[in-house]
Specification:
By secondary structure, the chain is of the alpha/beta class. The chain has nine helices and six strands. Strands 3-2-4-1-5-6 form a six-stranded mixed β-sheet, sandwiched between helices.
Length: about 270
């Protein structure tokens, strides 16, 4: 019939040969790449270890309070509490503390007993943290200022006086000394010092009475607040916000007492 086109497979080409139909091309659509099942977990929350120095010799006519050494019992206490903290996974990224002789020797004994946990932490030992422990109600504020500054989040650093005190303390003993410019995130800070200030600071952070015998540590964890952000989004959002809050903000916020660890504590 005129005007009717035959299918390509039935039409004849030149020389009477039948034309072969062109192969059918199909486009294969690639399967979409799988989407990430979940976002990366938030960093762990900020943690604070408030540790009282180990037992020391009594002051006498030949030595003042600042120069009292750790006793034989104190060295045993320091080694024992270091083992307890390491077993619990509370290993400091940063250490701040008093520059008294007994504080330095407490850290020495801990580093010798648990080198991996305490021997490589950045340490800053200051006379200001020795002095403030004897002042009513001032220790938490001073600790907060020092931690924020040495963690690299405060303005102005330690200042000339603080740097001189720290250098003197580091050069007078084998305590882990301060290497500057940490690349890793500071998650856990250990502060080593004296009563009554350390008990007051621990009780203030915990919002409950905390007693610290020699070589006893209060383990504290930041739970939120201080960052200026809202608390909406539930418990998970609050935990993520607490983890990403700066040290300066966290230290002004809310903390919880995880436990108190002594040389005789069970793991």
């Amino acid at each position: 019939m005129l005007g009717q086109r035959m299918p390509a497979a039935s039409r004849s080409g030149a020389g009477g040969r039948r034309a072969v139909a062109a192969p059918c091309r199909r486009r294969h659509r690639l399967a979409p790449a799988p989407r990430a099942s979940a976002e990366a977990p938030p960093p762990p929350p900020r943690r604070l270890i408030l540790l009282r120095h180990a037992a020391s010799e009594e002051a006498g006519r030949s030595r003042n309070d600042h120069d009292r050494p750790v006793s034989a019992r104190g060295r045993e206490e320091a080694r024992a509490v270091a083992a307890r903290l390491a077993a619990l996974g509370w290993r400091p990224d940063l250490i701040v503390g008093s520059n008294s002789r007994r504080t330095v020797q407490t850290l020495d004994a801990m580093a010798q007993a648990q080198a991996e946990a305490f021997g490589s932490a950045d340490a800053h030992l200051l006379g200001a943290l020795y002095t403030v422990a004897a002042t009513d109600g001032q220790t938490r504020q001073k600790l907060s200022e020092v931690i924020a500054q040495v963690a690299g989040e405060g303005a102005g650093g330690l200042g000339a006086e603080g740097a001189e005190e720290e250098e003197e303390a580091a050069s007078s003993a084998a305590a882990p000394a301060g290497g500057r410019g940490r690349a890793r995130r500071v998650t856990t800070v250990m502060a080593v010092g004296h009563n009554r200030g350390w008990e007051e600071a621990a009780s203030s952070f915990a919002r409950a009475s905390v007693r610290l015998q020699t070589a006893t540590a209060a383990l504290l964890e930041h739970v939120g607040g201080g960052g200026g952000g809202g608390s909406g989004g539930g418990e998970g959002a609050a935990a993520a916000a607490a983890a990403t809050t700066s040290w300066a903000e966290a230290l002004a916020g809310e903390w919880r007492l995880v436990r108190v660890v002594s040389p005789s504590s069970s793991p």
